[in-house]
Design goal:
It contains eight helices and nine strands. By secondary structure, the protein is an alpha+beta fold.
Length: 305
C-alpha cells in the first residue's frame, strides 16, 4: 500500500509457512530498492503462534531502515469485533474470521455436566472402535484369507492427528488396511494386488449416521513404485482424501449399491492410486456375530471385480 509519505507491505500467511527462510528479507530489500524516499513498513499477518515465532526469528535479519512488525489473525478479529456495531462489512468479516477458526479464546462458556457426558460418549465410542478393529484383525488371522498391511511399530489403524488443529484432537475417521493372502508377496513387504480398506467415519459432513466404508483400492504398480517403508498412522490422508476430497469422481449410486470411481492417470501423490470401489454400511448394521460377513465377505466380493 503506497501512501503519500509511507509504503506498507503486508505478508499474509493463512495456514502455510514462509516461502523460504529469506522471504521477509527479500521483501524488505524490495522496499528499500523501490521506495528510497518513503517510510517503510513490513507487516506479517499470520496465526498467533506462527506470527510470534516468525517475528522473533526474523526481526534481527530485517534492515533497520524497514519497520518490521506483525498482526495476528486473532488480534485482527478482536479489532474488527470492536468496530462492528451496525457495520455490515465488519459484521461479515468477523463472521468469516470466526468461521475460519480465528475467534481465539473467549472463555469456557456452556461448560456443564452435558460437556462431561459428551466426552464420556466419545470415550465409549472410541473404546468400541478399538474393540471392533481388534476383532477384525483377529478374524482375518483366524480365517487366513486377509492380513493387515505392513504398519509401523505396533500400530493397527490410521488416523489424522495434529496439535495445531483442534479438529484433529478428536478422531472421527479410522482406517484399517488389509491385503489378500492369495496375492503374491513382494520384496518391499506388500502384496501384489489391491489394498482392502475399512474406514469408520463419524463425520457429520458426509454421513447422517456413523458409517463404514468397505472399499478396494487399486494401484498402478505396487512392486515398482512403493518403497519398503510400512504404512504409518500419519498416512491417513493418502487414503482419506481420494475418497472424500473430489480427487476421484464417483458415479451416482443409491444407498446399499456399490460405488466406483477411477482416474485417467494414476494419482502419483497417492502412491499411484487408480480406482476405488466399495460399499457404505451404517455401523449399526454391523453386529458382533456379523463382523466377518459384513466386512470380509464384501472384501471377497470386491476382490472378484
Amino acid at each position: 500500500m503506497e501512501l503519500e509519505q509511507a509504503v506498507i507491505l503486508i505478508e499474509v500467511k493463512y495456514n502455510s509457512d514462509l516461502s523460504g527462510d529469506d522471504q521477509l528479507i527479500r521483501e524488505a530489500e524490495l522496499l528499500l530498492r523501490n521506495y528510497p524516499n518513503k517510510v517503510k513498513f513490513l507487516i506479517l499477518l499470520a496465526r498467533e503462534e506462527s506470527a510470534i515465532a516468525i517475528f522473533n526469528e526474523q526481526k534481527a535479519n530485517i534492515p533497520t531502515e524497514v519497520s518490521f512488525g506483525y498482526i495476528t489473525w486473532q488480534g485482527l478479529f478482536d479489532s474488527i469485533c470492536k468496530n462492528s456495531t451496525n457495520n455490515l462489512i465488519c459484521d461479515d468479516l468477523s463472521a468469516l474470521l470466526n468461521e475460519k477458526g480465528f475467534g481465539g479464546f473467549r472463555g469456557f462458556d456452556l461448560m456443564n455436566e452435558e460437556t462431561i457426558m459428551a466426552f464420556q460418549t466419545v470415550r465409549k465410542a472410541h473404546k468400541n472402535v478399538q474393540e471392533f478393529i481388534s476383532r477384525c484383525i483377529a478374524l482375518a488371522e483366524e480365517k487366513g484369507e486377509f492380513e493387515l498391511a505392513p504398519m509401523t511399530g505396533n500400530n493397527t489403524f490410521l488416523r489424522w492427528s495434529s496439535d495445531r488443529d483442534s479438529d484433529a484432537w478428536l478422531y472421527y475417521s479410522f482406517i484399517v488396511i488389509f491385503q489378500r493372502r492369495l496375492d503374491a508377496k513382494l520384496k518391499n513387504g506388500y502384496r501384489n494386488g489391491a489394498l482392502y480398506v475399512l474406514e469408520l467415519n463419524f463425520e457429520q459432513s458426509y454421513f447422517e449416521v456413523p458409517t463404514a466404508n468397505i472399499a478396494r483400492y487399486d494401484y498402478d504398480n505396487i512392486a515398482k513404485n512403493w518403497s519398503t517403508n510400512p504404512i504409518s498412522p500419519s498416512d491417513h490422508w493418502i487414503f482419506y482424501h481420494p475418497m472424500y476430497n473430489g480427487l476421484i469422481e464417483f458415479s451416482e449410486y443409491e444407498s446399499g449399491e456399490m460405488y466406483c470411481g477411477e482416474v485417467a492417470e494414476p494419482l502419483e501423490r497417492y502412491w499411484g492410486l487408480k480406482r476405488i470401489m466399495g460399499y457404505e454400511v451404517p455401523l449399526s448394521e454391523i453386529t458382533a456375530d456379523k463382523v466377518y460377513e459384513k466386512i470380509f465377505s464384501m472384501f471377497k466380493e470386491l476382490a472378484e471385480r
